[in-house]
Amino acid sequence: MKRTERLHAMSEMLRRSGARGISAERLAREFHVSVRTVKRDIDALENSGAPIWAQPGPGGGYGLAAGATLPPVTFSPTQAVALMAAVSAAADAPYADLAHAGVRKILDVLDPLTRRKAEALADRVWINAEQPTSRATRSALETAMAEQKVARISYVSGAGVATTRDVEPVLFAATNGQWYLIGWCRLRDAMRWFKLSRIERASVTSLACTGYTVAEVGEPPAGARPVYERGLPDSTKR
Q1: Same domain, 213 and 139
Q2: 118/139 same-domain check
Q3: CA separation for the pair 87, 187 (Å, rounded)
Q4: Residue 151: inside a domain, yes or no?
Q5: Which residues are bridge partners to 155 per DSSP?
């Protein structure tokens, strides 16, 4: 598990522990790391603004301050199922695992009646989505993008030629049912589109990206848009 994913999962465990809290030793066992690593992760969460409390001594541990959980959410059952369907149908999308965790968190804070209705409706929506890219490969690409580090990828072209390349990730894009990594290829010294299903392996290097921007990718395909468009009015609630 990458550190960014561990931090997210750790904050979720702290949230679920409530007033009881959870010990550093238990967190270490849960995430297969040392107690020292847990304490560094707790420091990182605190530095990011998470309201964490600590209880020293025997029986002590860590937790999230009261009021740090999500407030009541006014989702309708159909809105909740729409989120579940969208996330489940895009299992190969970047950050899909974190999206699943986010939907789970939303379901946790729905009122019981709405949750029961949402779960009943969800039973009537089936998904058969393929996941062509391995979890380890997607995790490396997601981390490289989020931290703006150079990714080292093993890529097989449409002609079957395999190469190893260092790529500065700039953008994830979905078009014609396929996901792509767009980035500056240091092997070709040019911006390139890499189909995720053709990336056999990927790792995150310690090299920082040099600052290529989305604008340098070029003109987007017709109808392309970001996954979140600022300033748009909310859709009609159902």
Answers
A1: yes
A2: no
A3: 34
A4: yes
A5: 163, 199
Domain match, 104 and 142 both: no
β-sheet bridge partners, residue 153: 165, 202
Domains contained in the chain, number: 3
How long is the chain? Answer: 238
Each residue's pLDDT tens digit, 94-139: 888 888 888 887 887 777 888 889 889 989 988 876 666 788 898 8
Measured over all CA atoms, what is the biggest interatomic distance in the chain, rounded to whole angstroms?
62
Would you say 31 and 6 are in contact if contact means Cβ atoms under 8 Å apart? yes
Which residues, including other chains, have CB under 8 Å from residue 224's CB and lie 6 or more apart?
173, 175
Bridge pairing between strands 149-156 and 199-208: antiparallel
Compute the CA torsion angle 99, 102, 108, 113 (nearest 10 deg).
-60
Retrieve residue 121's tokens: 């409706």
Domain assignment present for 229: no
Between these two residues, 75 and 23, which has the higher pLDDT value?
23
The CATH number of the domain where 199 resides is what? 2.30.30.520
Same domain? 141 vs 113? no
Read off the DSSP letter of residue 33.
-
Tokens 């995790």 sit on residue: 139
Distance CA 100, CA 94 (A): 12
Residue 57: domain span = 3-64
Closest residue by Cα to residue 100 from 31, 237, 5, 225: 5
Establish if 222 belongs to a structural domain.
Answer: no
